[in-house]
Amino acid sequence: MQRDLVERARRGDREAFALIADASITRLYNIAQLMLADADLAKDAVQETLIVTWRDLRALRDPERFDSWQHRILVRIVYRLARNERHHVQPVRLAGTDPGSTPDVAADVEDRDAVDRGFRHLRPEYRAVLVLHHYLGLSDDEAAEVLGVPVGTVKSRLHRATAAMRAELDADTRMSDGLAARTVR
To answer: S-S: 41 plus which of 36, 88, 117, 158, CB 3.0-4.6 Å?
Structure first.
């Protein structure tokens, strides 16, 4: 079905493209939101991705690779937006968190906030590889295709991203422990 829609859209069928866009918009937004940590920038990235997808669809050689091709477009746009907005990052509102509930829920929220802060400090390339690998569940080969880089680069970015994330979480923990110690005195 997807291949048929892509073929029709490549020939200029706007209704086929609308169906493709409807089917992919939520997935694209979730990816962009995770990578950018900013709802407005994520919406901009998705909108621009759909425009570029429509504009360049005829250049797609293999309709079977549409999803990877579209993800690659999104990632490039996200990189550009992240570079332009590097110092203007808003915190992500995590769904389903209620900081005032119980101590266990509060600890979960604190952990999620720490992960979110650490994630926002990562370079866009590292955020991209973490999202593609852990959120979308892409293999290294698939992530390499989406990012347009060799598989070895994906593996090294994943390794570096994981190490950077650990370092950010460790630093966050040390800072929290230091603030807690000063508060107790």
So the answer is: 36
